[in-house]
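Recall that a protein's primary structure is simply its ordered list of amino acids. Everything else, from secondary elements to tertiary packing, is in principle encoded there. The following example makes that idea concrete.
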Amino acid sequence: MIPNVISKRKIILDTDPGGDDAFAFLWLQSLARQGFAEIVAVTAADGNVAAQYTFAGACKLLKLGGFDTVEVGRGVINARQGDRADAEAIHGADGMGNLTHTLPTPEQSYDTARLSDQILIEALKQAPGELTLVAIGPLTNLAAAEQASPGVLQLAKEIVIMGGAFSHAGNVTPEAEFNIAFDPEAAQVVFSCCDRIVVIPLDITSQLIFTPEHAQQIFQENPNSSIAQFMVALCQFMVKSTLAFRETSGVPGFLVHDAATMAYLFYPETLQFQRAQVEVETAGQWTRGKTVIDRRHKAKLSANAWIATEVNATSLFAIMIEDLKQLVASNR
């Protein structure tokens, strides 16, 4: 009889905490609580809001879930990013529905924290082939790590990216998705240097509408849970802003783009993929930040990514909700 040995996935979460990041973050915490994942580090990124706010949000989410011993890096600031719009209008001034004041105060400080690229380089070199990088924000930190230490990203077991749009329209320009469009040059660096990439694009995340009813299912598991109360409040904020930006065709809910990365890692049966060579447009006047693949039926000599093309949203949400129930069940 073959023993049922569970090997934890060792994960570094690279994130710019916004509403959907928060739900992915909490799902990962649930999976870590259940023994399926080890959160090695969190590398905050400049993106949805400024780097000091994403750092604070990441620290507070870790404290909320009881993972406050996990190191958080502060995001690399790219000089080219000065004129790039963030997503404060959707996610709130603090990135999380203007709710961070309700979360516990962490011990980690932005001023003394290490830069995210330094954490990535050190961790990857210490455990080559063991770490999964889950990038659910702009790819500035990953690109900075690669540029500072060429070849370091190839030491990752795989890199899972929420970003891009292929057949689907963009969400910040007609062609580009936010995480890629925020720093296209960084994205191209990452896609150019590694061939173990998994891409979760808008093509499938646009189908993942998390509703107040979903939040209530989690809340009812333990109404006294501070995590459950935060989820309900954040959901309410995100639904309002999402409807204002017309992202869900009038359906009261919001898109949990980043949560699909957890589905891929732990419940891959909910997704289908195709292999392709992904490139990022960095020069186009109208298409800057677009992710591009060659769909022509010609022989192709290279491929760097698996791209999600289909998702079973019903199954994904059923699983996600049950995992989040487990997180809140013992939380006060």
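The first strand starts at residue 9 and ends at 15. The mean pLDDT is 95.
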